[in-house]
Amino acid sequence: KAGVTQTPRYLIKTRGQQVTLSCSPISGHRSVSWYQQTPGQGLQFLFEYFSETQRNKGNFPGRFSGRQFSNSRSEMNVSTLELGDSALYLCASSLAETSHNEQFFGPGTRLTVL
Amino acid sequence: QKEVEQDPGPLSVPEGAIVSLNCTYSNSAFQYFMWYRQYSRKGPELLMYTYSSGNKEDGRFTAQVDKSSKYISLFIRDSQPSDSATYLCAMSFGGYQKVTFGIGTKLQVIP
């Protein structure tokens, strides 16, 4: 069974640009969560999508947005990039059939903002 | 104050040592407690999870949760160089709520 895949793996952008990251969950998984990981703050929850609906949201500004498609694939978008957005962006998928399911993480997309 | 506090280390131990990793938390409503391992350039992978208080053992790994003290631990017995990674504690309220992570402790097991 294929794991969670994320594209691209590395990305370099400049301040003010926007970026779109993609995540393909494990087949059959309907929940996709996004996290930002930085050395100073660790893993911080961005948002979670389930059946194309945003179910949970973290404390990030509106520049961070996401969506989920009918095949459960998800994208996140960051507009008007800032230097502080440089981070590893991780996507995790789960079955979400019970109140707690194991999350399987992808390898992440390393975003560098210059 | 962060909801979940974890010493980032680094922690260096000789091969074969018993490793103790810990986290404290402030919100008593957390019910699910997890430990993830993250190797360099990889995403985190779930090692263990426990519901509420108690101990759980899986091979060389033991997870402990003390809800009265708001303290969780992960013990690694007979540590191996392959255990060298960052260990993240995580917790959630359950019911599809978001997972809150500690900052992670970097562990190095020296042969």
Query: Could you list the spans of chain A in which at least 5 consecutive residues all have pLDDT below 50?
Result: none
The helix/strand series of chain B, from N terminus to C terminus, equals EEEEEEEEEEE
Major β-sheet annotation of chain B: 6 strands, mixed
Helix proportion of chain A? under 10%
- Give the termini separation of chain A: 37 Å
Explain what this protein looks like in three dimensions.
- The complex is a heterodimer of chains A (114) and B (111).
- Chain A has 114 residues and is an all-beta fold.
- Chain A contains no helices and 11 strands.
- Chain A has strands spanning 5-7, 10-13, 19-24, 31-38, 42-50, 53-57, 64-68, 74-78, 87-94, 104-105, 109-113.
- In chain A, strands 2, 4, 5, 6, 9, 10 and 11 form a 7-stranded mixed sheet that branches. A 4-stranded antiparallel sheet of chain A has the order 1-3-8-7, with no helix packed on it.
- The mean pLDDT of chain A is 93.
- With 111 residues, chain B is mainly beta.
- Chain B is built from no helices and 11 strands.
- In chain B, strands 2, 4, 5, 9, 10 and 11 form a 6-stranded mixed sheet that branches. Chain B has a 5-stranded antiparallel sheet with strand order 1-3-8-7-6, with no helix packed on it.
- The N and C termini of chain B lie far apart (37 Å).
- The interface between A and B is medium-sized, with 26 and 24 residues.
